Amino acid sequence: MAYQVLARKYRPQRFAEVIGQEHVTRTLKNAIEQGRIAHGYIFSGHRGIGKTTIARILAAALNCRSAEKPVAEPCGVCESCTEVRAGNSVDVIEIDAATNRGIDEIRELRDAARYRPARDRFKIYILDEAHQITDAAFNALLKTLEEPPAHVIFMMATTQPEDIPQTIRSRCQHFSFHAVRFDAIVGQLRDIGDREGIAADDNALAMLAEAGDGSMRDALSIMDQAIACCGTTLSAEIVRQLVGTVSSEIIESLFRAVGANSSEDVLRIVDRLISEGHNPMHFARQAVRFLRNALVAKVAGQDSALLQISADERQRVAAVAEMFTEEELTRFLQILLRTHSELNYKQEQRFHLELGLLKLVHAQRLLPLEQLLSGTETAAAGARAEARQIARPANTSPGAPEKPAAEKTAQAGGAHNPFARAESGRPSPFELDSARKNRAEAPPAAPAGAGKSGEQLASGNVAVAERQSSDVDAQSVRQSVLNTLERGEQKSLAGLLETGHWSLHSNVVRVKPEDTESVMNLLRIFATAQPALDRAASAALGRQARVEIVAEQNGSAAAEPASAARQAPTGSARSRAASDPIVKRVQEKFGAEIRTVIDHRKSQ
């Protein structure tokens, strides 16, 4: 006798043998027992999960000759059951709708449906891939499907139910099949292996079930191929080679390289896989699945039922989940999903895969938008202090002579060092973010002479922010703000603030100009002046900051009231213009004279 593949040899012949579709089998059995048999059924769902199989079992149960009426479970021994199982029943007609999809074929079916069955109770039509039928053919079948003869039952199996017209779906009972669960596939494969005398370890069975991707038929086909390759003993390595997947150990090492900010190691891993003949698209798909499992392990725990993977892979995804935060894993998954989608239509798949993986490395260096907008300085100050410890060599004290930039870069980790400082001497965003993420794992040692500030740094005390304020003195902030104002065509304001007294208080820069009234007038006239001041101060400090203009009142510094800035001098328009400090300054600097004065008060 010719060899029969496992998917056909162990095809279920009774409702009780179908796995993963209990909601469908239970409903159909109850309908048969209650005599509530519909004239049309639509079975939809993933490939290889039992749609056509259940249609055949239902047809056998309706025409089973072991009783005078339809039975909940076919006997499997009568002529009707054996003929349905063999596929040569006269009254159970299976039609491939992918090839018989035209209006002429459906008209023939409609004409043949008028005749009674040759022997059995019902004449049953099973239309496989029913979504392939044309709209005209569906319209020709519409009336017959709505009011068929009492002896005719239609069963349509499809993977795309949305392509079936709503007029057809509304006249049938629609059953949506589920993808078979991972554990159910593994159990079925183990049971079939025992029947066939096949020794397979748990990792090999788990790999077969994962390759099936929810399809029992796909998993059995791959198992058949593995048996033909290595005989009665199945190993995970053999199955991995047949399926073409990458070891989860390699994917784990990839994400460890991402966590270490090592772009070189990431590229080396990709080069190794491509050299071994792995498909970039398949590898990207497997990395997406691994990353999804790592995210689930991070959210729901390593032992969650949402993880349908082997025990070995559970440990690996849990290890990766511990390396990153939930936000980082979510960002990584979004990047890899976009990369996998692009590989479907890009020419140079390797280059796009490498680019997508390098994006994972760079994604860790991004600062959260919430941190930039929060205005909270304690965490940022602590991060900057820790970043300085990361960037400074271990054998260098705070008072030691400054080393050349090239030497500092080499000591900090070479050309790929993500903690490198900007030329201005301020910590870069990469430096701040990396220090923020490393703070929870191991607080860096306090600088020499810091006293208790090292403990305050570990605990996030507010005193760290005060110590941070001294790192960038008021004079450097002053010079940076003045330079920014001069470049931004605010030279008049820069001249008034240049002679003032500057002081720094955490994230507030206070300026006491000699001519407070003129400064406030400029801020009132030019709406962009105050935002320009705040942006310049924030850039100089490396964090969110603002500038306040203060004036001397009773010997103490106090903020200039807004109402005072809005008070206008009295008198005629020419006299008010001549007494305006801005006009005076323009006259002194350019030798200008007042010719025409327009009083806007009279026009209001």
Distance between the termini: 106 Å
* Coarse structural class: alpha/beta
- Which runs of at least 5 residues are low in confidence (pLDDT < 50)? 375-381, 383-426, 440-471, 554-569
**Nearest-integer average pLDDT:** 78
Query: What amount of the residues lies in strands?
Result: 5-15%
What is Rg?
Answer: 38 Å
- Side-by-side strand order of the widest sheet: 2-3-4-1-5
Query: Major sheet, described briefly?
Result: 5 strands, parallel
What is the general shape?
Answer: elongated
Q: Please report the number of helical segments.
A: 31
E-strand count: 11
Helix content: 40-55%
Written account of the structure:
It is a single chain. The longest helix is centred in the middle third of the chain and has 21 residues, at 280-300. Helix 12 (248-259) runs parallel beside helix 15 and helix 16 packs antiparallel against helix 17. The strands form three sheets. The protein has a five-stranded parallel sheet with strand order 2-3-4-1-5, covered by helices on one side. It is of the alpha/beta class. The protein has 31 helices and eleven strands.
